[in-house]
Design goal:
- Helix 7 links the parallel strand 13 and strand 14.
- The protein has three domains: 102 residues, no CATH class; 233 residues, Aspartate Aminotransferase, domain 2 (3-Layer(aba) Sandwich), CATH 3.40.640; 93 residues, Aspartate Aminotransferase, domain 1.
- It is built from 14 helices and 20 strands.
- By secondary structure, the chain is α/β, with parallel strands linked by helices.
- The strands form seven sheets. It has a seven-stranded mixed sheet, with helices on both faces.
- The structure holds pyridoxal-5'-phosphate.
- Pyridoxal-5'-phosphate binds next to helix 4.
Length: 447
Amino acid sequence: MTQIHAMAAPKASRKAGGHTSIRPSPITITLAVRTPTSMCGENQRTTHRADSSHRPFHHCRTATSPNTPAPTSSTANSIRAVLPGPLGSKTAHSILGFVTSEPIDLRSDTVTRPDERMRRAMYEAEVGDDWYGDDPTVNRLQERCAELVGKEAAIYVPTGTLANEIALHVFVRPGHLVLAPAGSHVSGTEVSTAAMLSGIAFVELDAPRGQPTAELVAEALRPDPYDVAAVDLVSVENTHNVAGGTVMAVDELRGVRKSCDEAAVPLYVDGARIFNASIASGTPVGEYAAEADALMFCLSKGLGAPIGSVLCGETEFIREARRAKILFGGAWRQAGVLAAAGLVALEEGPDRLQEDHANARRLAEGIAEASPGTLDPSAVETNIVYVDTASVGVDPWDARDRLKDEGVLCSVLGGKVRMLTHRDATADDVEETIRRWPAAMSAAGMG
Ligand SMILES: Cc1ncc(COP(=O)(O)O)c(C=O)c1O
């Protein structure tokens, strides 16, 4: 192994006026160069596994195109070799133009990559055919989920969207309505899908924090005196994504349940992030599920699985749900390969969500300090942070682009910059994001 010294490449920074300036980086980096067997192949983009932790890959991209001759000197070849972890690849934007660091990805909690244990479980998974119901790993996951939430049965599907659509299809007759809080996934993102697949529509409730009270639900469920508008289902979202990852307390859910019972309308919980709600409130998921006729949760979000969601309910409901799943094209054959990772996610995932919540709160505090008035850190209840950059004159899309220039990925939702913490975004990544935030905002025109 050889040691070489390299200057970090000059970093291009975008200035408010739109022009690009070159800012030399002050840091000197010592590269531990690996033996030729660990080097990238010639003239190709190559991704290497860099360490044995769950952090999946450092990307080692050659700067050469297929037609460009490869550097031949031993130094150039050395620099094209894998850069191992301790350097902190996310902080090194570019080294001699050959290596591009991974950005800090806060676009969603779905971006986590499967860890080593999940990958091993997937490799070793025993599989069958889920259409026939004989994939043993899928069946094990479904049984485990049903047991965990205290329902009779569960069904494993590729996405939370499909779980929601199946539930809506089973509960609601065509031409009938679903009562849901404003901004909820079912009534927003899925509104056209629900119309297409099931011929149903939504009545949105304007609820504080996206969490309806028993009174609001009771009022909205008053029978239509003309007997035309018929509500077949009440749906709540816990945590509520667009409202900022807000948690519904189980007592509130009990109140909503009572209102539903009085109107003889079933209650559905879109619990894509119910484990975040559970950890934040100290309420076992089963206590939430006990109030719902059916509940869905995602394995692919905070729990860290690569894919998959689970719909839980009574046996007869799940029997119908399975039929809808197959009719909608969701029979996914040897899905045990993925269910195996889901089982690991269920084991490993919930306990570490507290860390995501603390990171989100810290991120919010750092941003509030740098850009006062853009958010209230005390309103961050779980792992979702919304920043109202428009309130300080910065277009959120522009903020997103400038953050990307700084190596931080976020999304924009409801006119705000949205960032989620997750297993693959460490406390250091959060500090780094806070450090880069002012440069992005001033490039976007604030300051
Ligand atoms: C509350 C909620 N429900 C459902 C979904 C859909 O999940 P999926 O992306 O797995 O389709 C999401 C996705 O972000 C969500 O936030």
